[in-house]
Design a protein that fits this description.
The chain is mainly alpha-helical and about 180 residues long. It has helices at about 1-15, 20-30, 35-55, 55-90, 95-115, 125-150, 155-175. It has 7 helices and no strands.
Length: about 180
Amino acid sequence: MTTNTKKNSRAKAKTGSRSTRKSTRAAARPSDAIKLLKDDHREVKAWFKEYDKTDDDAAKQELADKICLALTVHTQIEEEIFYPAAYDAIEDDDLLDEAEVEHASAKDLIAQIQEGKVGDPLFDAKVTVLGEYVDHHVEEEEKELFPECRSSDMDLKALGEQLAARKAELMKAAAA
């Protein structure tokens, strides 16, 4: 009887490995707000690097479009959900004010990029400068703003759920 029990438990393990079950649970569970925002940062930074490395115009255009969409959604969820919560929770309004001004500059460049196409005068320069703005913005958020938010009484888990839901909604609308 012990042998059958071992065989049955082994058979069950083969149908869904522990790592598969763990990653499925993690994907279903929204992360905290800061992790979600940092993940967005990493994804967009990787696309900027990929843009810089490619000479293929179609690939560049696709990357520019992905970057613009991702940053548009990211700035919107930060401005609608994360920044208002941070204004309430931390003392340093200057950091948040600067972040909003940086967003305005990025949105202006995003609009210029979306109005153009690869091969237009200054198109590559606009993407490059947008990447530099994003690098600067990300560094300030991750080294200054996020640590202050972590040490505050912000409910980062609940904010993460709100951010994830709003992001999914905006991405779905953009795909329609």
